[in-house]
Amino acid sequence: MGTSRRGFVGGVSALALLSSSRAAFAQKKYDNGASDSEIKLGHCGPYSGPASAYGVIGKGIEAYWKSVNDLGGINGRKINFITLDDGYSPAKTVEVVRQLVEQDKVLCLFNTLGTPSNTAIQKYMNQRKVPQLYVATGASKWGRPKEFPWTMGYQPDYHTEAVIYAKHILANIKDAKVGVLMQNDDFGKDYVDGFKEGLGQDAGKVIAKLVTYEVTDPTVESQIIQLKDSGANVFFNVATPKFAAQAIRKAADIGWKPAQYMTNVSASVTSVMKPAGFDNGQGIITAAYLKDPTDKRWDDDAEMKTWRAWMDKYMPGTNQGDANYVYAYSVSFLMQQTLAKCGDMLTHENVMKQAANFQKLRVPMLLPGITVSTSPTDYYPIQAVQLQRFKGETWDLFGDVMAAEGS
Amino acid sequence: MPAFPKKWLWILLALAFLVPLLQPLLPDVVSNYRLFLVSTMIIAAIAVLGLNLLTGFNGQISLGHSAFYAVGAYTAAILMDKLDMPYYATLPIAAVMCFIVGYLFGLPALKLEGHYLALATFALALSVPQILKYKWLEDLTGGVQGIVLSKPDVPFGLPLNEDQWLYYYCLVVMVLLYWAAANILNSRSGRAMMAIRDQYMAADTMGIDTALYKTVTFGISAAYTGIAGALSASAIAFVAPDSFNFFLSIKFLIGLVVGGVGSLAGSVVGGIFYVLVDNSAQALSTFVKNDLGLQFDLSAYTVFGIILIVLMYLMPMGIVGGVYYLVRSMRSPGAKAREQAALKQRASS
């Protein structure tokens, strides 16, 4: 540091005195990545490699900051959003994140994508004391402020969601015998752990059969046959979109008609329900926290209209049915609010403090009744979902918004 | 391929050891991040060196070196995680482990030549990340969650920071391995290895135990790449199956071909090249779009591809080969025609 802090603050206060338009003695304080004219945000995601379908989230966020900058930025500062490709390889993530933090000197990381990628950098970010905010993964391990005070998630975590399904099954289905299809990775494990927790001590009895598949498997057909043979009357489908669709179709083909529950990850009409066949998917229950852009009920909704107009202007020619853009838009809004609340105190510490200090903030495109709340001990911004049932050609929300109690 | 001139080697080495000490004077030029990046280059260079021993000097093609890299990385990570072993002690164990795996894989590979061997090793590269996720091994490997490790601590109270120490650690390991490889190649065994590459039948007829040499070379090559993997586990401080996908094998192969097949110095250049280009391709593509104002929305991999094609066209013998012939032809213009002819002959053979 060239100037001492006292000298710096003194200079700033003199400046504040001179410019009468500004509130007197507004205290300004900057860490790396912030200045009078600019805030640097770092991001990395898979623009190439096996998970490149998620690359659209980064593109959506980039477009969001462009629209913020066009409207004058945040408190007069433009957002400089630096996004790099890590190809979904954790080793590469470490490389690019060190570049973002040490070379580009960003104020914080925002919405870095992938559970393994974020695991790889979590320790580093917390040692460096640079915020790793609103990470793009639903694993339950991003809300541990005691061990990792600089890391925070965003979406409802898989664990919480699965607890809600379990409770719903216990409350609504008599003598439930559940067959579980699970993708053999952290995503699948988080769901199944939560599901078992939700079922309580009877979990062993209620789960009739648990079968797994690998992401690299061509189909899950044999697994579905095994589940049918187990005599299960409930099917819990913990699969990513391609496999979820296969499972629904196969179950219908072999005449297995259980009550079906499916994860929010695969709740896409265009990439799951349509290929699975609308007839085969009637009655499937899943949870949602965002407004589905294909759901006609939102056509007259003000937030949806604003979002569509924004898409038309900043992401022309892209698929507006892709829920990833809704996700990008909502999470960027939260980041914008966080930075706006920081005012002129743009330090790593203050960013984290503000991020952990939201009370029932309404974020556009979340379902009505779902808000963002955080505190220094609660690092899970969204913890509520609403169940929805597939009906006709789209999802039909039912029941109340449900929140997981104190996880 | 000619050996690297000794004089230059010493100068480069001295530079490599001294430059990081300039950090207090030039904190922005010799930053910790750059040192870390150079460490990853060194690690890549060791991996490419391993592949070069097999492909460049023994003529066996492998698309499976990401698998040996993964085995090395996981061996080191498990030893550190479960047995609290110090990071430096894991290197020889990872090397032995990979030698065994490589040697065993080399046995069935004896029956496979050329493209078939490439396919078999390809299968190896695909299967290892899956095996790492397998539920019986999960207690050891951490499954898809991987294993989070600590970075190597600076020993003996040396006045270095973590990244400087990591750099020196990798550098010393590479120098030792380079020296060992040069000695192997310059021995009876090395000549046997190359004889098998150049004329398999003749080598066999002359009494070289081709089966033994081929399998042992496979083992040594795997051990080198495994050591690189073990070093990367320390450098990245995290291992997960997703880090060792098939594309990593392709990267080693790119480093090998670009640096120079059958050249030790080329391996180092190749390792440096792929880390450098991999990291700057994206910067280059945004530079073309934003600063030059050209309306090409090139992805980073397109830029990477274009650079590769241009390089292969200009320097079919790799960077080291290309530079060597350039220097030769500049020194004696008369020799240029001869060199060109030789170059063509080698490239076509």
TL;DR of this structure?
The complex is a heterodimer of chains A (407) and B (349). Chain A is an alpha/beta fold and 407 residues long.
Please give the structural blueprint.
The complex is a heterodimer of chains A (407) and B (349).
Chain A: H1 5-18, E1 29-30, E2 38-45, H2 55-70, E3 78-85, H3 90-103, E4 108-110, H4 115-128, E5 132-133, H5 158-172, E6 178-183, H6 186-199, H7 203-206, E7 207-213, H8 221-229, E8 234-238, H9 241-253, E9 259-262, H10 269-276, E10 285-288, H11 302-314, H12 323-342, E11 345-346, H13 348-355, E12 384-391, E13 394-403
Parallel strand pairs in A: 1-11, 2-3, 2-4, 4-5, 6-7, 6-8, 8-9
Antiparallel strand pairs in A: 10-12, 12-13
Helix pairs in contact in A: 2-12, 3-4, 5-6, 8-9, 9-10, 12-13
Chain B: H1 6-18, H2 32-58, H3 65-83, H4 87-109, H5 114-133, H6 138-141, E1 147-148, H7 162-185, H8 188-198, H9 200-205, H10 210-236, E2 238-239, H11 246-259, H12 264-291, H13 300-314, H14 318-331, H15 335-348
Antiparallel strand pairs in B: 1-2
Helix pairs in contact in B: 2-7, 2-10, 2-11, 2-12, 3-4, 3-5, 3-10, 4-10, 8-10, 11-12, 11-14, 12-13, 12-14
